[in-house]
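hey team, just a heads up i'm posting the complex here instead of the shared drive bc the drive is being weird again. everything in one block, sequence lines first with there labels, then the predicted structure for the whole assembly after. its two chains so it's a bit long, scroll down
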Amino acid sequence: MTNPIDIAAKATPAPVARRLRGLSDRAIAWIFVAPTIFLLLAINIFPLIWTVRLSFTNYRANRPNEEVEWVGLRNYTRILTDDGIWATMQTTAHFLIWTIVLQVLIGFTLAWLINRKFKGNDLLTTLIVLPMMLSPAVVGNFWTFLYQPQIGLVNYMVELFTGTPASSFSMLGPGGLAPWSIIIVDTWMWTPFVMLICLAGLRSIPDYIYEAAEVDRASKWRQFWTITVPMVLPFLMLAVLFRGIENFKMFDMVNLLTGGGPGNETLLTSIDLKREAFEKWRTGYSSAYAIILFVTVFGLASIYVKALNKVKER
Amino acid sequence: MSAYSVTEPSKASKWVAAALVALYTIITLLPLVWIISTSFKSGPDSISYPPKVVFEPSLEGYVNLFTTRTRIAAEDFAALPPPETWVDEIVRDQGMVIAGPSRFGERFLNSVIIGFGSTALSTFLGTLAAYAFSRFKVPLKDDLLFFILSTRMMPPIAVAIPIYLMYRELGLSDTHLGMILLYTAVNISLAVWLLKGFIDEIPREYEEAALIDGYTRFQAFRKVVLPQAATGIASTAIFCLIFAWNEYAFAVLLTSGNAQTAPPFIPTIIGVGGQDWPAVAAGATLFLLPVMIFTILLRKHLLRGITFGAVRK
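-- predicted structure starts here --
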């Protein structure tokens, strides 16, 4: 009875089932789609419209009885001219670029190695994938333990392998290491994602292409650059798209790891937005902030998807 | 296959590849092994330097996770009767007595209720919608993937602002129903899209044969399509469950007590002078273990789920 189908079938009451039997295809299509559409309108579209509306006001959610003023575009101009917000954008860009570079390099290499089809590659793949399925919040919290100054496992490992004394640096404290610490955790978590997608790309290349290249006496090096890389590229670009979108809005893992600190060193836009919206309660202002972020990702992603489609067509 | 193929990697290269991948696996699993081993350490062992690899296993973390403890005056402590259970004994060894159960049990149960509730709802609605999208001409059909991607582009905090206000008006703040509906809405576009992919793969001829045999469309859906889509539905359900289980941003902003799930709760577990690491590790272990098991069960469909069906094997 744990089968979802049985549950779905049992969940349909007899009279409803009897009535459904006599329905036309058109009616069934509507009945099947309507609840989903309704839910999406209520919890996705409607809030989005509300956010747009709020972004033109000075509303504060912690003072619901105060009179709400219509401020026009003032929130937007204030955000776009705020140096602090440009700094968080740069922090986010640093995080985004390095995580993508590292994950693509390590992920592709791993996929390429696993594609040698050695014995036990399935088992290792499953084990490698584990980190990405875990709760980013719980993982972020636990990495603060591994990153403990002086006594943490990471400091110990660094001392063991490089001789740098464990008490001489702090992964999450002042000293400029924190932005790299969050990059390490993200790379640890999400390299398997890039790896899996690259692996699918590598496995999609038919053997006969390599066989033909072998007949033409193309070197392995040449085969790699003229067959393997171009054929995996669309897959790799898709992986980058997903990672880019996810990391642009990164919140949970970094919020627990550093909370934006020390100072503002790891203050990503999402964490900044949370402070504005749920700590300073500047609801109208943060709505405008949210819309700007959304439009930014949306614009960048659209341009990127166009490029991706061009690569696919080749 | 022939005995020798030019595309088959050489034996040596296989060995090198296997060794490198195994090395990566060991490094990447180290933090997870560390979480699990810390959950069995005593408080002092967990923060000793150099870190202890060999230690005397203790259930202190698990006991502390499920109880709240308090210190009492030394003379009262000395006058206590000997501990009755092993749980009491572990707490006494830390110089404290049990004050009551902790909130972890409740929070874990909330995770289960909200996770399974939203999974059941999004899989149920998603299957219906996916069938309609797969078999009939429905408006919005072509915009669906676009829609999924764009809902995922909103930072969760941006979505949380209007939801917070809406739920406050409707009285859904910090309720199980509110969280179930929210997670369902987040999951449903993914569920519909994945399931549409699975249903698209079932040949239409099966249903058409059933329709000719006198089945109504609804019977054909129930008796022909649903059994065929079983694996797809099950793996979609697991994806929805893992998302709802892991979710943190909405949970921390929209719940505070009644409906709070485990992810916002685990980081708040504190002991004497900072976080009680064995207890945090115990909570994390209990919380992460089900996901690890599901991941292993799901490995064949993993790729499809994480790429919203964009890559199929």
